[in-house]
Amino acid sequence: MVYDTRVCCLIGDPIEHTVSPIIHNAAFQKLGLNYLYLAFKVKKSMLKEAIEGIKALNIKGLNVTIPHKIEVVKYLNEVDEIAERIGAVNTIVNKDGVLKGYNTDGEGALMAIKENGFNLKNKIVAIVGAGGAARAVSHFIVLENPSKVTILNRTLENAIKLAEDLRKKTKVYCEAKTLDTYSIKESVTEADLLINCTSVGMYPDVEKTPIPKDYLKKDLVIMDIVYNPLQTRLLRDAVEIGCKIINGLDMLVNQAALSFKIWTGIEAPLDIMKKAALEVLEKKRL
Ligand code: ATR
Predict the structure, then answer these.
(1) Which of 161, 188, 194, 273 could form an S-S bond across to 23 if both were Cys, CB 3.0 to 4.6 Å?
(2) Which amino acid residue places its CA nearest to atom 2 of ligand 1?
(3) Interatomic CA distance for residues 249 and 170, integer angstroms
């Protein structure tokens, strides 16, 4: 029946790059669930109204993306322990008007790193960015006992805040740096794994990169959480230099599957989700 269709959606700005509706709708269809997933562009200044609208329209589940992941926390009724620790939410479930926030980004990223055969123990990790995604990813990375985590960010104070938060929760050595050429060079020289957790390079700005090619080195593993395009400029440069790369697809699908389970209580069909995402991203060839 149409009137009892459960609606889930993504809120963010920009959202033009997203493939979340494709992968969730493919999963709902595969399992025969009466759910529909939409994407809404919500400006930073309209977040409060959007959340009120979620309650008013009884929307079942939400994904939250740039730039709302941190800000949205204050509009929620409850926040799960992991999201609380991270300080950012990418998934919300609406239980009879009570909104509870979760974060599936960090776990999704860690699963992707492991699936790609990288063992974080005693490794040096450089994380570019200090926003919601960087918070989630770094909080899960420190659980695996790397020897050091460096947060590099355009705005130093955001990097300092994240490094301080991490230090409170782990014994892993965490430091903060500005994203300038000197710090990039210093951090890349010592790092084993570099992860771009900013939106730099995302469609439509596909020629941008957070780390200029000249600073990359061959024995570095490079991961980009940007999944559209699948081969970002950063990853293309990395391949040319001979680095091993991890694209954003596995993290995207893993975090989506975890969100799906939170909304529906049902295990997500990961393979169907990945196939749907790949189909659309490869067709776009962005
Ligand atoms: P998300 O929730 O996806 O992490 P966010 O919280 O808005 O989004 O964070 C975006 C991150 O990308 C931030 O680290 C931001 O840096 P600032 O803290 O300086 O804002 C980073 N970022 C966005 N655009 C950038 C750019 N053009 N160059 C470098 N960093 C950028």
Answers:
(1) 273
(2) 132
(3) 28
Q: Which atom of ligand 1 is nearest to the CA of 129?
A: 14
70 lines ligand 1 (CB under 6 A): yes
| CA-nearest residue, atom 21 of ligand 1 | 198
Does the beta carbon of 101 sit less than 6 angstroms from any atom of ligand 1? Answer: no
How much distance in Å is there from the Cα of 43 to the middle of ligand 1? Answer: 16
CATH code of 25's domain: 3.40.50.10860
Q: Say yes or no: CB of residue 201 within 6 Å of ligand 1.
A: no
CA–centroid distance, 99 to ligand 1, in Å, is: 26
Under 8 Å CB-to-CB from 70, ≥6 apart: which residues?
A: 87, 88, 131, 132, 135
- In this structure, are residues 72 and 62 in contact, taking their beta carbons and an 8 Å threshold? no
Q: Taking the CB of residue 217, how many other CB atoms lie within 10 A of it?
A: 14
**Domains in the chain: how many in total?**
2
Claim to verify: residue 97 and residue 114 sit in the same structural domain: no
| Whether 69 is catalytic | yes
Distance 100 CA to ligand 1 centre (A): 25
Closest among 248, 185, 249, 253 to 220, alpha carbons compared: 185
**Residue range of the domain that includes 167:** 106-247
Listed residue (270, 259, 222, 273) closest to 244, CA to CA: 222
79 and 163 fall within a common domain: no
Dist. CA 122 → ligand 1 center (Å): 27
